[in-house]
Description:
The protein is mainly alpha-helical. The protein has a domain at 3-42 and 74-102: Arc Repressor Mutant. 54% of the residues lie in helices and 6% in strands. It has helices at residues 11-23, 28-42, 61-73, 88-102; strands at 3-5, 75-77. It has a two-stranded antiparallel ribbon with strand order 1-2. The chain is globular and about 45 Å long.
Amino acid sequence: MMVTVTARVPAEIRRQGNAVLEQLNATPTELIRAAYEYVLATGQIPVAQDSAGRDASELPVEKQRKLAEMIARTTFDVSPSLLDFDSYKQIRAQGLAEKYEALG
Length: 104
């Protein structure tokens, strides 16, 4: 079963990142999958430096926990019936509708 992951990224980072991914002949989906595989393999967030030169491994434990919670809140299972839709927007809308309906 596949799931959809939604993330907020600054527009300029996305633009630059997509340009690099294109040069690597890779997609954002492959990048996200690789990031999850890294987390599973290492038990750590991939190292990325912020503007102050700190990497993600220097995040306080509480911020790491909040980040993990945010990832959990912004993902949902994609049932096989959703794969019949033509676009990501349709899949996301239906998946969110199912998630909200499950809340009761």
